[in-house]
């Protein structure tokens, strides 16, 4: 499916009969996206946390705090943190008294940063680190109480497959929560946000991480991600119930929630 | 924070000893400055209100944690599968035996090894006047280095090196030396200080300059080791990290648990074939 850059919120959910998908504003063969995304995150892994602060002006910390509050950590609950990368959600969950967590990511370089951070925080015994593809998880059905995904879904090739897998590994009564960039709902903010994303971000990427292209991709991937209502529909299609979303910072990001009942 | 309990081994090279005296065969692994520093404190080791007071306070928490984790993780050697045999533990850099005596009382057959003759003299004197009592393991002391023991083909079920690794010249080599001394399936326990802003303020500025709990110059903050660095060194030495805990003050004593941003303790395991 060829995407149109003039439609910033055009869905990246390719038709199953189609052989292409989005990679930012480019249309690429489906089989290539994972490799391209892998290269992006291998490039930015070492500076990922610093760049998150710069990209979001530190707001990502507040967004993640809200997200962890909604996860409602408790000692008896088990978390699967998909596309967990450097571990912010996993560590927040554990700090707040959550039960054992699996920190999972398809990218070994990002996961290694997360593993080292877990060791340095003295949390490694409570974290299982697992290199896994969110589209085909190596876990049995009904094995987690919570599945989280923060800023990862937009980088997946087959988003519906990810949502179906999240539902499959959830226990009945378990909850899936997704924190992701979304469609800005405040017109004045949308213009500022565009300038920030497409002019400031790649420049900062060049200065801080020596890599403008990766940050250009990150900005484009945000625009290509399904808007709030569309993602809700995909979650329902995946079999999740009581689906809802909550906008943060005028819709720059949204937290989507769904349950396996 | 606690000064090192010990005179220390580790890779790295040192100048010849004073007066051109011949160097010991394995002197390349021994930090002469550290030995001199702790030699000078030999008479004070067992004074719970002296310069080793922090070490006395934290000693039970460290050794009890090691025992609990060893019971959880150690794979018995074939000769131990019937039970009833004491585990052999090497306390590397034992100083005057604060940890060694406690390990023996916890039931380990313990060998305390150190490169400081005066610290070992203090250890032997204390043991002579404070017998271990019933139910304890055996306790012996040895003057030497990790390399010497390894060269002699010695291996142990457990190797413990508490508050040492931040004092050696080459921590990675030191950990390799320890790994050579533990049998497959056995465990290596290491406690040290994390290199964080908090540890600089607490263990360096606070303990040495503000509270004067330990002598100035006891620690070099730049030689403190983060848990991830320690884990990487363990991995290079063929060991696997299996447990970790913070060591933190708790009233007048210490306990294992809480944050790892100042003192922490780890247990590594040598994979069984």
UniProtKB/TrEMBL annotation, chain A:
S-adenosyl-L-methionine binds at residues 86, 105, 133-134. Coiled coil: none annotated. Its EC number is 2.1.1.163, 2.1.1.201. One of its GO terms (biological process) is aerobic respiration. GO terms for molecular function: 2-methoxy-6-polyprenyl-1,4-benzoquinol methyltransferase activity; demethylmenaquinone methyltransferase activity. Keywords: Menaquinone biosynthesis, Methyltransferase, S-adenosyl-L-methionine, Transferase, Ubiquinone biosynthesis. Residues 1-21 have a biased composition (Polar residues). Pfam families: Ubie_methyltran. The keyword Transcription does not apply. Pathway: Cofactor biosynthesis; ubiquinone biosynthesis; Quinol/quinone metabolism; menaquinone biosynthesis; menaquinol from 1,4-dihydroxy-2-naphthoate: step 2/2. It catalyses: a 2-demethylmenaquinol + S-adenosyl-L-methionine = a menaquinol + S-adenosyl-L-homocysteine + H(+); a 2-methoxy-6-(all-trans-polyprenyl)benzene-1,4-diol + S-adenosyl-L-methionine = a 5-methoxy-2-methyl-3-(all-trans-polyprenyl)benzene-1,4-diol + S-adenosyl-L-homocysteine + H(+). The keyword Methyltransferase applies. Residues 1-25 are annotated as: Disordered. Methyltransferase required for the conversion of demethylmenaquinol (DMKH2) to menaquinol (MKH2) and the conversion of 2-polyprenyl-6-methoxy-1,4-benzoquinol (DDMQH2) to 2-polyprenyl-3-methyl-6-methoxy-1,4-benzoquinol (DMQH2). HAMAP family: MenG_UbiE_methyltr. Belongs to the class I-like SAM-binding methyltransferase superfamily. MenG/UbiE family. This is Ubiquinone/menaquinone biosynthesis C-methyltransferase UbiE.
TrEMBL record, chain B:
Keywords: Methyltransferase, S-adenosyl-L-methionine, Transferase, Ubiquinone biosynthesis. Pfam families: Methyltransf_23 (PF13489). InterPro entries: SAM-dependent_MTases_sf, UbiG_MeTrfase. Its EC number is 2.1.1.222, 2.1.1.64. The keyword Membrane does not apply. The keyword Ubl conjugation does not apply. SUPFAM superfamilies: S-adenosyl-L-methionine-dependent methyltransferases. S-adenosyl-L-methionine binds at residues 62, 93, 114, 162. Residues 1-27 are annotated as: Disordered. One of its GO terms (biological process) is methylation. Pathway: Cofactor biosynthesis; ubiquinone biosynthesis. It catalyses: a 3-(all-trans-polyprenyl)benzene-1,2-diol + S-adenosyl-L-methionine = a 2-methoxy-6-(all-trans-polyprenyl)phenol + S-adenosyl-L-homocysteine + H(+); a 3-demethylubiquinol + S-adenosyl-L-methionine = a ubiquinol + S-adenosyl-L-homocysteine + H(+). Residues 9-18 have a biased composition (Gly residues). One of its GO terms (molecular function) is 3-demethylubiquinol 3-O-methyltransferase activity. O-methyltransferase that catalyzes the 2 O-methylation steps in the ubiquinone biosynthetic pathway. Belongs to the methyltransferase superfamily. UbiG/COQ3 family. NCBIfam families: UbiG. This is Ubiquinone biosynthesis O-methyltransferase. It comes from Formicincola oecophyllae. The gene is ubiG.
